Amino acid sequence: MEQFISPPIPYELLHGPLTAPDIASARQNGANCYALYRLARKALGVEENLPSEGLYEAVLAVPSLGAEDRTGDLRVGDGISFGPQAPKIAIDRFMPEFDEQGYLMNWRDFPIRHIGIVASVGGDTGPQILHASQYDGKSTIWPLDMFQNFPRYARQFGTHRTEV
Known about the structure:
The chain has 164 residues and is an alpha+beta fold. The protein has helices spanning 23-29, 33-43, 55-61; strands at residues 79-83, 114-120, 128-133, 138-143, 155-160.
């Protein structure tokens, strides 16, 4: 996971997997959390057909990302999703609204706001999560416990198991 933080990739909210399809593009143009997640999984050798549009579509394709917290058995490479502690709308009640180009218009109401990937487990600080941080403005690794200190990331939703 070192390749994603040294040097760090700039955080850019609107630069998803289609804008940052590889690490060189991400370094040049920046990447959001979902783009970094997909790049890290690819670096681990995970070939999958995750949607390239955005995090909402990924949660539809991988329902475990929207499940209740299942973070007790994390492994390196697992995805983990985050959102506000008390979202405006429950995940099962969210009704997407798309514009003419197919972009999700009401993404701010979607309960899952962020995704990271487990970079390491164990140690004194517990699981370490690689993510593209809007707070740090770049790709970084935080201890899992640190996420609860930020309103946007306070609730852990679910995981996406990676077999590597």
